[in-house]
Input
Amino acid sequence: MIARLLEGVPRRGLVLLGLLLAALVVFPFFASGYLLTVGFLVLYFAYVGQSWNIMMGFAGQLSLGHSLYVGLGAYAAAALYVHFGVSPWIGLSASIAFSGLAGAVIGFLAFRFGVAGVYFAILTIAFAEFARIGFDHFAWVQGSSGFFLPVANYATNDLWNLRGSPTMFYYLMLAMSAAAFVLCHALVRSRMGYYWQAIRESPEAAEALGINVFRYKMAAVVISAAMTSLAGVVFAFYYNNLFPEQIFHISRSIELILGPIIGGIGTLVGPLVGALLLTGLAEGMREIMLQLKVDVPGVKQVFYGLCLLLVVMFLPHGVWPPLARRLGLERGGADGAARADEGKP
Output
């Protein structure tokens, strides 16, 4: 199994991945509390970017409402924990079920009735907005006033109930990101992964070849939604508060997908590279402005917009594909993308 996963991956790619993993493992030993939070955010956005990449990068289905699955996962696990004392790991089953069902409903409505392209993207935004408005008036989770999780202390790490220090959450997010990388690598090299890529390039041609386009599109949406819901659970228990206006808003969805867009859609390393660049540079700029005592409203959004503009103008296929070429990882390399060397998403 392991040999099959590593097939076609050059030794240089394995070495670089090993060095990156080692650096991420030892990072908390040298990082301050602030840098540890930045590291957590980088891994969080890398994980969610990887989840979204299944839907868009592999299967070619553009979702602009992925915050829906983050919010459903977060609220399901948090509500079960607060009201019934259920461990978030048990509540995760409800989170996956709700998010997977939402993804299945969206996918069924879109794919059964021929909603594609920009109209599919609008449909995903609409469902996220429905959820935002609905949870805004959902008294069981305190509606618009916010849903708060009890926090005893940060000194003792309780992994079963996800109560503990930022270091514990960092390593949890690192494990999730590594697992998502391995899973996506296996998926893209599987028969379903090749079917997804065929559907992405031309659904009509894929259908003519006998591929059940509806089934595999649905699989991409449900898998992506279920993976994303896990990030929502960690988000809820890390920040300990949930506001519908914050977690379901379209700006949150855009923030989630910028990583793979900047790094390289359809590649495995791209979401991590994009998250590292965006989050690292944005937080670094924020820290510099705090030191200079300069307060510019919306500067983070302006920075994201400039990054996106520069990538579209000079690196239209993302940062990772040309970097992979320079490192000699063009085909079958560490990113595992079948066509990264061609620069196509």
